[in-house]
Amino acid sequence: MGTNTPATPDREEHMLGHGFYNKHSHVQGAANSYGLPLIARAVAALGAGTLGGVLRLADYGSAQGHNSLLPMSAAIEALRARQASPAPAILVIHTDLPGNDWTTLFETVLTSPDSYLTATTDVFAFASGSSIYRRIFPASQIALGYSAITTHWLSRKPGDIPDHIWSARATGPSRTAWTAQARADWYAFLGHRAAELVPSGRLVMVNSGADAGGDSGAEALADLANQTLQALVRDGALFADEYAGMAIPTYYRTEREWREPFGDATFTREHPLALEHYEEVRLGDVYLEAYERTHDAETFARAYAGFFRAAYEPVLFAGLRPTRSAESAQAVKDLFAQRMQAALAKAPARYSARWMLQLMLVGKTA
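The structure corresponding to this sequence follows.
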C-alpha cells in the first residue's frame, strides 16, 4: 500500500492494471486460505451489540478484487450463520490506493461466478480509494476488517538502498531508515483501525513478513532481480542513476516488530487493541509445486516472471528518466522481464520463494 498522494518515485501506486495483477497473483491468493479459520473465529467473537441492522466489512488492500472474493464470502457466510433472522444487511467496502485498477475490481465483484454477491441478498459492494495509512471510515463503523498481503507495502520509500532493491539487503543508515518507516507505518495502520472498528470489532490479518533472521522467503528471487538490473546497467540498457533510485517500498517485519505496538502501554491506552492470535507459517510455492509435477521449466519461469512483474514493475521502474520515450521505457521493462524469465527457467528450485506469513487476529477492547 501507499499514501493517499500523487505517485512520485517515493510514493508509488502499486500493481499493474487491466486485470494483469488478478491473473498473476496466485501466491497472494493461496495465502488467503490461511485467514479463513480466523475469519470464523472473529465473527464468533463479535459482541451481541454489534449484530443487527447494517454490518460493515472492510477489505483493506483489495487490489483488483479476485483474491478478496473467498474471504469476503467466508465472512458473510459466518455472519449469516450467526444471525439468520433477521438477516442483517452487509456492506463490503474494498479499499486501495487511488490509482488501483477499480474497473477490474468492480467487474470482478459484479460478474465473477465466485463473487460473494452471487448467492446472497442484501449484500452491497463499495470501494474507497484511500491509503491504509490514513483514516478511511468514521469512528466505530467497521464490524470486521480483513487485510491480506498488504501491510508489507510501506507508505513511502524511505530512501535508496546502495547496490540493491530489497529492504532486507539494506545495511547501516539505510537499514535504520527503512526499519523506522516500517515501524511508523505499522503504528499508524493500527491506530486508524482502532478508531474505525466498532466496540468488540475484529481485524483479521494475513501478513507477509520475515522470520527471526529477517528472511521473507524471497531473498533469492530479489537478488536475481537485482543482478538482472545491474546487468542491464552494464549493457547500457538502463542508466546508472535510474538503477540507483530503484528500491521496492516493501518491508518484512519480524514477530518482534509485529507484536511491539500491543505491548506498548502508551499506544494501547489510546488505541484499545489486543492481539488475540499470532501464528507463523511458511507458504508453499504453488509455481514450484506445478513444476515438480510437470518438469516444465518454461511455464514455471513465465509464471514467476509474471508474478514479479505484476507486483513490482510499476514501483521498480517509476524512476526511469522522464526524457525516455514511452517506447524506450517499455523496452527496458520488457528486457528485464525476458532476462528474469530466462534465468528462472535455468534453475527453478534456486529462485523458488516460500514466503513467511504472520496470521493475526486483533480485537478492539472496551
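The domain at 20-165+172-216+248-285+353-364 is CATH 3.40.50.150 (Rossmann fold).
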